[in-house]
Amino acid sequence: MNGLTAQSLIHTEALAIDDCWNRIGVYGNKSCPLLAEHIHCRNCSVYSAAATRLLDRYSFEQDGQDLAAAPDLEHKVATRSLMMFRMGGEWLGLATGCLDEVAPMQSIHSLPHQRSRALLGVANVRGTLVPCLSLVELLGLDPTVTVSVTASQRVMPRMLIVAAPGGPVVLPVDEVDGIHNIEQRVLNTASLSGEHASAKFTRGVLPYKARSLRWLDEEQLLSAITRSLT
């Protein structure tokens, strides 16, 4: 725009407009011969044309701001959606892409001659029998570790229904915190150290809500689920 900003262009346009209403109109000496016909300058076509001209310039400024802001929309913060839940005394995160749904806890019916220690039995999910697996066994968690819950807390076990390669599988969990979007840059810095250095099927450990959250590797977990059912 030849070095002119939208604001300076509006200012230049305003200076170019003959503000006759301030000189000879109702805001001036009232000597305008058209006042007898229009009573007030706002009823005059000259006044209306000047106002329209300025409004067009302000509209131009807004369009310019919108165009300038458009590229910013392309720089959205990359995030990843994780379902966060608790097993015993440990908080875990699993990518929501491999989850079908979260369901209320139901009865699990044991099976004779179960194929693996991880297989708890089957549950009825909307009329279909779905195998139930133990995350304690799959992840090698300590079954003796629990968390203390006060009487005022409402903690309800849930079932995570996972979309495994061979069909849905139920993973009972002690508590569900919900789905949360975690910035990819935070996930990229997640690492394994200390007690989690040899944790099974784990991408890393994240700080979240004053907790240490263990971010599970969904591909390794799904592979372990398949092996437990074959």
TrEMBL record:
The record's section on SMART domains has: CheW
Recorded protein name is Chemotaxis protein CheW
Looking up PROSITE patterns in the UniProt record yields:
CHEW (PS50851)
Q: Which organism is it from?
A: Pseudomonas weihenstephanensis
InterPro entries from the UniProt entry: CheW, CheW-like_dom_sf, CheW-lke_dom
Which keywords, in A-to-Z order, does the entry hold? Cytoplasm
Segments forming domain CheW-like = 79-227
The protein's location, in the record's own words, is: Cytoplasm
